[in-house]
Amino acid sequence: MRQPDVMRMLILGGTAFLGRALARRAVAQGIEVTALARGSAPVPDGVRFIRADRDRDDALVPVAHEQWDAIVDLTRQPGHARRAATGLHARHRILISSANVYARFDQPERSEDAALLAPLDADELPDMSHYGEAKVACEQAVSLAARRDGSTATIIRAGLIGGYGDWSGRSGYYPWRFAHPTGRDVLVPPDLDFPVALIDVDDLVAWVLQCAERRVDGVFNATGETTTLGHLLDICKGVAASPARPRPVEAHHLAAAGIGAWMGTPSLPLWIDDPDWRWFATLDTRAARAAGLHTRPLAETLRSALAYEQQREVARATGLTDDEERALRARLTGDTTLT
Ligand SMILES: NC(=O)c1ccc[n+]([C@@H]2O[C@H](COP(=O)([O-])OP(=O)(O)OC[C@H]3O[C@@H](n4cnc5c(N)ncnc54)[C@H](OP(=O)(O)O)[C@@H]3O)[C@@H](O)[C@H]2O)c1
């Protein structure tokens, strides 16, 4: 029989990086968790799983008759968010949104009242270049539902999420590369002063659960402390106990070698060669911290990201392969040996 005082949480997602970590911790905290997704990977033990494709209009029927204490939506599709907002009943709603909702990134640490992109009208995200607009539309759907039915809602604009399970490799590439050098140096972006911030997936998950328990109402940025790429690389070198030194490569050499920035293959992550995007990773997080967000030291996140990289089973979507790093070094100096 159901315990009346046990929180019942519906996670719309739960099979990928953040949602899976959330489901696992929620179960460990004694929350009764249901996850709804297509099932591209298994949910953690103890989670009731409902297989459904939210592209279909009837996807939410199996969970629509229930009264949820909290619903956490991880979607990026406005249509998914709209249908969940109108078709599901909850005392509290949480949307995992993104720093990409902001209109500009040329100033440090945007606060929550900074200008947003226009919401995407369409139900479906045409491609990732409209990701920010789509998340604005998802935010609006959740806020509207909360106003309409008198529930509460936490909109969480997450910055870059890192740590154990970061399949993208953005947080894991440099720790891994320092742990597996192809030479005396590790090739890194030219701008070591580039502003960097990221949030450990486990810190974000812990705070999402606090928001659910305390029904925290409002819009919040969530990321770690702002630092520089140079400082992050020093930490990576330490975490990997690596003798290799970071070696900045000028942007024109990277461009000539077809090496991109931020994410993708081949790339050097965690920087963007565009002044309009310079402060992209950084957010003003005072409101979230006042509402209980705690972020751990960066070294711990990078250590977790390295642990994940050491046993990753899917290809990294970021960085340089050994051969690509050797080829770039050869272009620069002719030094292709590990000495
Ligand atoms: N990674 C970052 O650095 C970062 C930064 C800021 C914000 N965010 C946000 O943080 C969240 C990350 O979530 P995540 O890592 O758990 O997962 P995700 O890769 O963003 O996927 C979201 C979840 O939605 C499910 N899903 C996708 N299409 C679906 C469909 N048609 N029907 C039913 N379910 C569907 C997926 O499961 P199935 O494939 O099994 O269906 C998955 O569990 C997202 O909201 C993202 O926008 C991420």
From TrEMBL:
PANTHER family tied to this protein: NAD(P)-BINDING DOMAIN-CONTAINING PROTEIN-RELATED (PTHR48079:SF6), PROTEIN YEEZ (PTHR48079)
Pfam families listed in its UniProt record: Epimerase
Protein name, per record: SDR family oxidoreductase
Originating organism: Nostocoides veronense
Span of domain NAD-dependent epimerase/dehydratase: 9-84, 91-215
Coiled-coil residue windows: none
Leader peptide range in chain numbering: none
Gene3D superfamilies assigned: NAD(P)-binding Rossmann-like Domain (3.40.50.720)
Domain of life from the UniProt record: Bacteria
